Amino acid sequence: MKNFKLNCLFILLLALFLSSCGTRKYTAKSNTKAAKAADAMANLKNKGLYRFITDWTGVKYRLGGLDKSGIDCSGFALLLEKNIYGFTLPRRSKDQAEAVKKRSKSNLEEGDLIFFSFGGNEVDHVGVYLNNDFFVHASTTRGVVVDDLNLPVYQNAIVKTGTLK
C-alpha cells in the first residue's frame, strides 16, 4: 500500500510538473528590438548570410582585427562580402565607400553597404544591410551585432549607401 501511495504521489507530481512546463510561453514581444532583429535574420533570402552572421555574432571589436579574436567594421564587411557574395573590397571603410555604386537608402537590398561618419565628414564606419531597416556590423562597444538602422544615432550618421552588384 505504501508503494502504491508513493507511486500515485510521484505520478501526480510528474503530471503537475509537465503541465506547468507546457503552459509557459517563452516568446518575445514582437515590438522589442531583439524580436525585430530576429525577424530580420529569419527573413534573410541568403541562408549562407544567416549562417555567416550567426557564426560571427558577439565577436568583439578590435581595430585592425580580421579574425574571431577581434574584428573591426571594415574587416567584417570585407569578409562577409567575399565569403557570401564573392566580392572583393578594399580594407578601409573609407575606401570601401568609394568602391560601391551609390544606391538610395529606400532601395537597399540584402548585402548592400551602409557607410557612416561618426567623427566628422569622412566615412569611419560600415555595415551590411539585411532587410526591414536592419543591418549587421562590428560595433566598437558590442562587437558583431544586428542593429536597427532607424535609431537616431545611425540615422544622423549615414553618409552613403551603395551596392557592389
From TrEMBL:
Gene Ontology MF terms: cysteine-type peptidase activity
Gene Ontology terms describing biological process: proteolysis
Signal peptide bounds: 1-20
Domain NlpC/P60 per the UniProt entry, residue ranges: 43-165
Keywords: Hydrolase, Protease, Signal, Thiol protease
Keyword Metal-binding: no
UniProt-listed PROSITE patterns: NLPC_P60 (PS51935), PROKAR_LIPOPROTEIN (PS51257)
Keyword Nucleotide-binding tagged: no
Family listed: Belongs to the peptidase C40 family.
Protein name: Hydrolase
Organism: Pedobacter polaris
